[in-house]
Amino acid sequence: MSDTETIAFALKLRPGMAAEYKARHDALWPEMKAMLLGSGILHYEIYLDEASHTLFAHILRRTDHTMPANRTNPVMLRWRAHMADVLEMDGDMAVSWPLEKMFELKA
After folding, report:
1. What is the pTM of this model?
2. Residue among 35, 43, 33, 37 nearest 5 (CA)
3. pLDDT tens-digit profile of 45-103?
4. What is the pLDDT of residue 74?
5. In whole angstroms, what is the distance from residue 38 CA to residue 34 CA?
6. Please, which residues bridge with residue 12 across strands?
7. Terminal Cα distance for the chain, rounded
8. Annotated active-site positions, please?
9. Measured between alpha carbons, how far is 20 from 12 in angstroms, rounded to an integer?
10. CA distances from 49 to 44, 55, 92 (A)
C-alpha cells in the first residue's frame, strides 16, 4: 500500500438544512462512493458545528490519489448540483476552505 496523508476542510451549510444534508449522505449514491474510493480516499468523515452551520471534513487518502480528476467527473458534477440547495455555493462549487492542522497525537 502507498503512503497516506490527511486533509481537512470546512464547508458552510445553509441554516436549517442539517437534517437534509445528513439524509443525502446517508443515501450516498453507489456511483459517488465508487468514485471517491476509486480516487484514493481511504476514510472520509464530516462533522457539523450546529452553532455556526460549519461542516468539518477529514479525509485520509493515499498519497498517489487522483482526487483532482473528481472535480470534472460527471458523478461529482451531479452531486454538486444535488447539494446546491443545502450548502452555501460560489457558482457551482460549495464554499469551502482548507483547515490547518494544529495538533496531532499518534500512538
Report:
1. 0.91
2. 43
3. 999 999 999 999 999 999 999 999 999 999 999 999 999 999 999 999 999 999 999 99
4. 97
5. 6
6. 54
7. 20
8. 25
9. 14
10. 17, 6, 23
